[in-house]
Amino acid sequence: MFASKKQQFRALCKDPRTKHLLSLLAVVGSGFLQAFTLKVFIAPAQLLSSGFLGISILVNKIGALFGADISISLLMLLLNIPVALLCYRGISPRFTFYSIIQVICGSFFIHVLHFEPFINDIMLNVIFGGVFNGLYVSLALKGNASTGGLDFVALFISNKSGRTIWKQIFLFNTILLVIFGALFGWEYAGYSIVFQYISTKVISTFHRRYQRVTLLMTTRKPQEVMAAYTKQVHHGISCLEAEGGYSHEKTYLLHAVLSSYEVLDAIDCVYKVDPAIIINQLTTDNFYGRFYREPE
Q1: In angstroms, what CA-CA distances link 162 with 25, 147, 290, 292?
Q2: Domain tally, the chain
Q3: Is 142 exposed, middle or buried (0-12, 13-18, 19+ CB in 10 A)?
Q4: Would strands 278-284 and 237-243 be described as parallel, antiparallel, or unpaired?
Q5: Are 142 and 216 in the same domain?
Q6: Is there a single domain that holds both residue 161 and residue 248?
Q7: pLDDT reported for residue 209
Q8: Which Gene3D superfamilies match (predicted)?
Q9: By 3-state DSSP, what share of the chain in percent is helix, strand and coil, each rounded to 5?
Q10: pLDDT tens, residue by residue, 245-263
Q11: Which pLDDT score, from 0 to 100, does residue 2 have?
Q12: In this predicted structure, what is the pLDDT of residue 293?
């Protein structure tokens, strides 16, 4: 009885509709938590976030110096959507779609929801803000999405060139902090560095961003699986002829390396052409060679 229930649960989790629903719930929840973190911790402590949210906060504060009320939620949309449209061809369509949904939800909740801060101590706001900031980013990543912004650019460049741009992103965020410190006080810039560090540690605890994984797939339909895989994911895949150890029947072992955020798309598409396929997912610590294969 218990085994049957467990099998039904696994089958439900593999259902594409269930996966889409879970992704939708994750990005909506992430957007809500983003608004909560901004209103309750970031704004009262006058902290600066990283990425496009950081740009939006900085522009909002600079505008306030001149008496202009520039909407953070509107700035987030104006910055994120054009970048997403420019980068979507080099990123999983599903990942891009849910990331845009997260940005829209976050912008909407920031605009309409009002939370009262409940901590007066600035250091506690920094600590709790960093934790909650990391949690909402991790929740989006668990839903096979992101919080947009520089994630789009980083993934696009990583897939195109096989290289990361962490140094450039770090430099960009450093420039934001220098501008922020020069205009609004180095004390708050220092607190913002601690806030961003805590957030990064929380994210790395729950999710390894842009991690590459290896899929080992055993199938009797290699051509169909490879065609579906390369059409959906746009990465190379290798095929080896094999023999079943128990059945001694002829089978094929497919080997592919891809980004962690693309795994769900890849598994969905190969299961459609071969429901009997066996997939083993492995963590890839190091990868050498050209990673991204240009679409046909």
Answers
A1: 31, 22, 6, 6
A2: 2
A3: middle
A4: unpaired
A5: no
A6: no
A7: 54
A8: 3.30.70.120
A9: 65, 10, 25
A10: 888 889 999 999 887 778 8
A11: 43
A12: 45
Asked whether 173 and 54 are in contact (CB, 8 A), the reply is yes
Spatial contact of 71 and 57, defined as CB atoms under 8 Å apart:
no
Low-confidence ranges of the chain (pLDDT < 50): 1-7, 9-10, 293-296
**7 contact partners, CB below 8 Å, separation of at least 6:** none
Single-letter amino acid code for the residue at 94:
R
Neighbours of 118 (CB within 10 A): 10
Is residue 261 located within the same domain as residue 185? no
Please give the span between the terminal C-alpha atoms of the chain, in angstroms, as a whole number.
48
Q: Are 136 and 91 in contact (CB under 8 A)?
A: no
What was the pLDDT predicted at 117?
86
Q: What is the enclosing helix (H) or strand (E) of 155?
A: helix 150-161
pTM of this prediction? Answer: 0.72
Report how far residue 171's alpha carbon sits from residue 46's, in angstroms, rounded to the nearest whole number: 21
